[in-house]
Amino acid sequence: MNSFTKFVTISTLALFVACANQSASQVAQDVANIAGGVAAAAQTLRDANLLTADQQVKLDDAVSALQAAALAVARATNNADQQNATKEVVVAFNAVTAALANDKNLPQNVTTVLTAAEVLLPTVEALVGLPVTSTATAVAMTPDEANAVLATEAALVHP
CA–CA separation, 21 vs 76, rounded Å? Predict the structure, then answer.
């Protein structure tokens, strides 16, 4: 192998590793934004006393599971762990939406946060190499806009 071929091979490998690391950190940030935004939305509902006691318990349990899964994504050291933790994020988010399914009069910021999470989850699943199981409602929101909504909402509760 000549020196030019070695350089190209090493450069390609370094680029691949850098992209993989960027993808892992992007997934961790996206999932942290989802968990933070949803936790803030849950706090809004709690503060406004808009849920039944049963709904609140289910929502609190789902948000706790979502936050734990987000932490697992951030701590994942390989793609298999990241995939498993991302699956937990999807399950926990589905539990959040199930807890709120019968409430059609949610505040606008809560529905916006839920929509943003629904938009971002398929991106997260794709980044870790999972088949996309989440289906976002047809909305005019990009993943970047969804991330901004979630991060902004999370900052309102956790400045």
Answer: 12
DSSP the chain: --HHHHHHHHHHHHHHHHHHHHHHHHHHHHHHHHHHHHHHHHHHHHHHT-S-HHHHHHHHHHHHHHHHHHHHHHH--SHHHHHHHHHHHHHHHHHHHHHTTT-----HHHHHHHHHHHHHHHHHHHHTT--------S-S--HHHHHHHHHHHHHHH--
**Chain position carrying tokens 């070695």:** 6
Distance between CA 96 and CA 55 in Å, rounded?
10
Q: How many CA atoms lie within 13 A of 33 on its CB side?
A: 25
Q: Where are the domains of the chain?
A: 25-157
Structure confidence at residue 14 as a pLDDT band (50, 70, 90): very low
Q: Can you tell me which residue has the tokens 């994504």?
A: 73
Other C-beta atoms closer than 10 Å to the C-beta of 40 total 21
pTM above 0.70, yes or no: yes
